[in-house]
Specification:
InterPro entries: Alkaline_phosphatase_core_sf (IPR017850), Sulfatase (IPR050738), Sulfatase_CS (IPR024607), Sulfatase_N (IPR000917). Residues 1-18 form the signal peptide. Keywords: Calcium, Hydrolase, Metal-binding, Signal. The protein is of the alpha/beta class. It has helices at residues 2-20, 48-56, 70-79, 107-113, 204-208, 215-229, 262-284, 305-312, 360-368, 384-388, 439-446, 485-499, and strands at residues 23-29, 58-60, 63-64, 117-122, 150-153, 166-167, 170-171, 181-182, 200-201, 236-241, 291-297, 337-340, 349-351, 355-356, 398-401, 410-413, 416-419, 453-454, 457-458, 466-469. It has twelve helices and 20 strands. A ten-stranded mixed β-sheet has the order 7-6-5-4-10-1-11-12-2-13, sandwiched between helices. β6 and β7 (170-171) form a beta hairpin. α6 (215-229) runs parallel beside α7. It is globular, with a radius of gyration of 22 Å. The chain starts with a helix and ends in a 16-residue tail after the last helix.
């Protein structure tokens, strides 16, 4: 009886919202940590535009990215599928084809089917092409084959090649007389990324259009121009995937020196400005009241050299959470999420219920009145009642935690987190000043206590697996695995079911960090 009533409520909510077909703006920041915003406790930097979203909407304190790593996180967000289903664990290499199967249901194809005008601006990083990207020809399939009408952005990551923009199916500004060539020294004069990216040279004309400190401004301008230039009355879906705040930290000149924690905070300031400009463009169209805005991040903050300097200045990139990007501890994947939808999402509210970006697909389907079919968004749970405050209890109880290391694939179930190995499965830098500082030495640097670790090293008697009660210990300071064998057995059973979904064959993007 209760189930039937709840189902009726969801159906009626979805039908009412579908009739209005709200515009949707999804802003996905890069490497923004749980503690990087004023509304999440930051004091050494200012984020008035994002904070205003929280004041006018709902702030989530237990929201998670699909992975603690960029590419698998973006895969999960777009498809509503755990990246383990694709055997995807790390950054998609430069020569990797499109990792999402054409014809799959995505956020963009769902909304395009519902009559939306769809656009993506910013970081893609989930591959192009059927076999590998053709940087001198058509980059197809890509965003347009997954439901976007328009795409402009960077194909990979702002710290690695090819250091160009892509517009729809081609490299923006490319000169056929100066083709891209793998193995040729890059005129971009940047060090090639390690970890499977490889070097690619040529394409000087396209490289010249790619200026690091103008990337944020360029993506903002493209998104705003698209909003301003729309002449039809169809609802719109704007997906803006910023490169802020991924290293290198290259804010526009106007933001340099504006924070109290160096370039790290300055880059967050530029991000907040970008968000404000997009919101202003929505308002200029008179569309604020009928626009759902979701702001979030692709994974937790990374303790790179610039972040270490910010930390010394008093800024806590992941707040009080344990761990960093790439790892299974909460700091790797618990992220900011702020949702505003005037008249639908209660203003000035906070939700501590469990939610994942994987749930956006099913939630957008509820909003548009579309019932997902078998195989569409298989891991996505509709969270419309959570967004609107209609549900007094969590809609999701279980979540797969996906770090870089497959051995550290973990399970969150209610208040419990189970990680079947020591450590986080993330970066392994050992000394302050190292770009990849993390793990036990990273905790020592950050002053984060954990019962398995003393002075930046594992205790000799530390257990080989981990269990934490987040209700009692949100900072994961105490491993209680020895005290709750029955909980471990239950979570191991759940984990075994998900491990069986990982396809055989080579892992995509996986970086061997010698875990």
């Amino acid at each position: 009886m209760v189930t039937a009533i709840l189902g009726s409520i969801i159906l009626s909510l979805g039908s009412a919202f579908a009739a209005e077909k709200p515009n949707i703006v999804l802003i996905n920041a890069d490497d923004l940590g749980y503690g990087d915003l004023g509304c999440y406790g930051a004091t050494k930097l200012k984020t008035p535009n994002i904070d205003r979203l929280a004041t006018e909407g709902r702030r989530f304190t237990d929201a998670h990215s699909p992975s603690a790593v960029c590419s698998p996180s973006r895969y999960g967000l777009l498809t509503g599928s755990y990246p383990l289903r694709k055997n995807l664990w790390g950054p998609v290499p430069l020569r990797e084809p499109l990792t999402v199967e054409v014809g799959s249901m995505t956020l963009a194809s769902l909304l395009k089917e519902a009559g939306y005008d769809t656009a993506c601006f910013g970081k893609w990083h989930i591959g192009f092409g059927e076999k590998e990207p053709d940087w001198n020809g058509e980059l197809k399939p890509g965003p347009l084959e997954l439901g976007f009408d328009t795409y402009f952005g960077i194909p990979s990551v702002n710290s690695g090649p090819p250091f160009v923009y892509v517009e729809n199916h081609r490299v923006f500004g490319a000169d056929p007389e100066d083709p891209f060539q793998y193995g040729k020294p890059s005129v971009a004069k940047r060090m090639p990324e390690k970890g499977g990216y490889g070097a690619i040279g040529g394409g000087e004309a396209a490289h010249k259009l790619y200026v690091d400190k103008r990337i944020g401004t360029t993506l903002k301008e493209r998104a705003v121009d698209w909003l301003k230039g729309r002449s039809d009355e169809r609802p719109f879906f704007l997906y803006l995937a910023t490169t802020n705040i991924h290293h290198p930290f290259t804010p526009a000149d106007r933001f340099v020196g504006t924070s109290e924690c160096g370039r790290y905070g300055d880059f967050v300031h530029e991000l907040d400005w970008i968000v404000g400009e997009v919101l202003a463009a929505v308002e200029a169209r008179g569309a604020t009241d009928n626009t759902l805005v979701v702001f979030t991040s692709d994974n937790g903050g990374m303790l790179n050299v610039t972040a270490q300097k910010a930390w010394k200045a008093g800024h806590r990139i992941n707040g009080d959470l344990l761990g960093f990007k790439f790892g299974a501890w909460e700091g790797g994947h618990r992220v900011p999420m702020v949702v505003r939808w005037p008249g639908k999402v209660p203003a000035g509210t906070t939700s501590d219920t469990l939610i994942s970006q994987i749930d956006l697909l099913a939630t957008f389907a509820e909003i548009t009145g579309r019932k997902l079919k078998e195989g569409e968004g298989p891991d996505s749970i509709g969270q419309l009642e959570n967004l609107t405050g209609a549900s007094p209890k969590p809609l999701r109880e279980t979540l797969v935690i996906s770090p870089n290391s497959p051995k550290h694939l973990g399970i969150r179930h209610r208040q419990w987190v189970y990680i079947p190995q020591r450590g986080s499965g993330g970066f392994q830098g050992r000394k302050p000043g190292e770009h990849l500082l993390a793990g036990p030495p990273g905790l020592a640097f950050a002053g984060r206590p954990n019962s398995d670790i003393v002075d930046g090293k594992y205790r000799a008697d530390a257990p080989m697996a981990q269990l934490y009660n987040l209700e009692e210990d949100p900072a994961q300071s105490t491993n209680v695995i020895a005290d709750h064998p029955e909980v471990v057995a239950e979570l191991e059973t759940i984990l075994k079911r998900y491990r069986a979904m990982v396809p055989k064959g080579p892992r995509i993007g996986w970086i061997n960090l010698k875990q």
